[in-house]
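User: You have something folded?
Assistant:
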Amino acid sequence: MFAQSADQQLFEQVTAGFLDKHYPLGHGRELAGQESAFEPGRWREAAALGWTTLLVPEEAGGGSISGNGLADLLIVASAFGQRAAPGPLSGTNIVAATLGRWGSPQQRQGPLAELLAGDAAGAWAHATADGPFGHDRHLLAAAPSGDGKVVLTGTAGIVEGAADAKYLLVAASGAEGGAARTHYLVPMDAAGVRVEPRQSLDLARRLADVWLRDVALPASARVGEPGAASADDGWLSDVLAALLLGEIAGAVNQAFAITQRWVADRYSFGRPLSSYQEVKHRMADMRTDAEAIEAVAARAARAVGTGAADARSWVYAGLAFAGQRAPELVQDCIQLHGGIGVTYEHDLHLLLRRVAMDTRLYGTPGGFAQRLGALVVATDGGAS
């Protein structure tokens, strides 16, 4: 969907083939009753395809296909969306990108190498008021201990993939950064870490609250400069937003393709549904919205991946538009299927769950539209 060059097209074909073999659309129903949807062995195979390296600089062991790793990773995100697939794609890549950019040599040789090889999964306790999501979901405090360690206490709420992750990236104020936040890499098996699962609308993805109670970490657990987490989180949340847009674009295009086949094959009063004018108009509107979501996702990924000055405005615009239209589009697909569309056995509800979660997990379309307006006003005011 987002492949441009021959190399990207090959990457897209390999990715699609792997997911079709192991996680076809409909597999989510098999995962619904399972405590975990994560398969470590399968994830190592996926890492061998290059899914974990694209946001990491070459000098840290990574590498991209096109020179813009985020645009390359968007291909994988859209494939995940098309199949409502499980896997720690976003969390692992966010943690890997952080360690690749700001991690110490020790962190690159240890945790980052594990993430790149698929031997470990990562999760990000997202919390920033400065990025596109504009809210704070956790409150963590860091305090120095007498033996040179730092002690973390607090709660990280609604963390995707926390129960399956080996490493959790958090930001905490206090200790080295003072009032400003500092990033720390927390091993999930550290003493004082407790994971409390939460219900998830998406059958293939797992959410959890993570409680940290006097978790003592060595000084080497700090990632980046003291007090730099807020600025770094701004870029990380832009990356996550672009990946969400890629998933949304993949899901709505899959829903549209399923519906396009349905209205062509289903007959009513001796005529295919697609021959009726009302259905034609509805399908045309849906196609227009699906292509618009795909276009803004591609533009946001290119802008964020290249560090363009207007990157966040594209992120805001994409989340505002897709957040409103994507769930409505999939709902339209369900309605065009008639009664069978609302059954649990039909795959459309898996796509609706993926889209609904991606478009609401970090904010609302109205909130993103407001932040886009504020950003435009601030940019125009600075220019004048």
Summary: The mean pLDDT is 93. Residues 6-121 form a domain with the Butyryl-Coa Dehydrogenase, subunit A; domain 1 fold (CATH 1.10.540.10). The longest strand covers residues 150-160. The CA atoms of residues 18 and 27 lie 14 Å apart.
